[in-house]
Specification:
Layout (H helix, E strand, L loop, with lengths): L10 E5 L8 E3 L3 E7 H22 L4 E3 L4 E2 H16 L3 E4 L3 E3 L6 E8 L1 H5 L6 E8 L2 E9 L5 E5 L4 E3 L2 E2 L12 E5 L10 E3 L4 H9 L5 E4 L7 H14 L2 E4 L16 E4 L2 H11 L5
Parallel strand pairs: 6-8, 14-15, 14-16
Antiparallel strand pairs: 1-3, 2-3, 4-5, 6-7, 8-9, 9-10, 10-11, 11-12, 12-13, 16-18, 17-18
Helix pairs in contact: 1-2, 4-5
Length: 283
């Protein structure tokens, strides 16, 4: 099964593609084409594949911007994904290169290599994450584990899947029973049963969506950009897990400088307890 064609077709209006779709007027002077959910997911899969191929072909982890933690391979992977996304008529907010075509009605929030520090050290937990966002919020998401090749996808209102198989969270409702993923170091034990610090937020959230982890707590103060978590957020939500910012801020933002503190739980009860624990120290 091709994971890019596993959803029921539904049309969205996007700027014109180069694939012969009929044209119509849309918004402020756009000539737009109809893009189905299947087509949108296919574009995300194509962009992810381009980023993964570029990552594999480069292997250059030289630090090009130490203040941002940006490696040479991040830039190469970003360029490859951007070519696909922009060519398909989508706007982009990328961790590596900022905002592109912000006048387009759908923007893809892109992290071409989430967990680049892991990748640079051969630790097998890093991914490419993409989330298409429209005026109503996250619309379609794809997170690809670059090591295993597993592809997690979701479309708003359509559920979440890994390689075509429906995802569901664990159902754990109490923090004392939960295995949680962490980012950053809390000042004290927060009450979990076990924890794992894996190093790639997008994959950590997918692990919550599929029940491998029960929750996720970002213990760093407002450290993560929307490219880190938006793909995993939609996948969690469509699987039935819950995600919030620890400070109650909107997680759906399209500003390059925005930073948030995401927390996830397999159930609303677990999320509420995890958020309360996280609020015991600065967010």
């Amino acid at each position: 099964m091709n994971p890019a064609t596993s959803m029921t077709a539904k049309a969205y209006s996007l700027p014109r593609l180069d694939d012969g779709h009929a044209l119509r007027r849309a918004g402020a002077g756009y000539r737009a084409a109809v893009m189905t959910e299947d087509r949108l997911l296919a574009v995300l899969h194509e962009a992810a594949s381009a980023a993964i191929e570029a990552t594999s072909g480069s292997g250059d982890f030289a630090m090009v911007d130490p203040t941002r933690g940006q490696h040479a391979v991040d830039v190469v992977a970003d360029d490859a994904a951007l070519a696909v996304l922009i060519g398909a008529g989508l706007g982009v907010l990328s961790e590596e290169s900022g905002r592109h075509h912000d006048d387009r009605p759908v923007a893809v929030v892109l992290d071409p290599l989430d967990g680049s520090s892991n990748a640079s050290r051969g630790l097998p937990w890093y991914a490419t994450s993409l989330c298409a966002v429209d005026g109503e919020g996250p619309l379609a998401a794809l997170v690809v584990n670059q090591v295993s090749g597993a592809r997690y996808e979701a479309v708003r209102g359509g559920g979440a899947r890994r390689d075509g198989q429906t995802l569901a969270p664990s159902g754990v409702a109490r923090l004392q029973d939960a295995m949680v993923g962490l980012s950053g170091l809390p000042p004290a034990w927060l009450g979990w049963r076990q924890y794992r610090a894996l190093g790639a937020v997008a994959l950590d959230l997918c692990a919550v969506a599929e029940g491998r982890l029960d929750g996720y707590i970002d213990c760093s103060p407002s450290a993560h950009g929307p490219w880190d978590y938006l793909g995993g957020l939609l996948i969690c939500q469509e699987a039935g897990a819950a995600v919030e910012d620890a400070a109650g801020r909107d997680l759906v933002v399209l500003e390059h400088g925005a930073r948030r503190t995401p927390v996830a739980g397999a159930t609303p009860a677990l999320l509420a307890e995890a958020v309360a624990a996280r609020q015991t120290f600065p967010v």
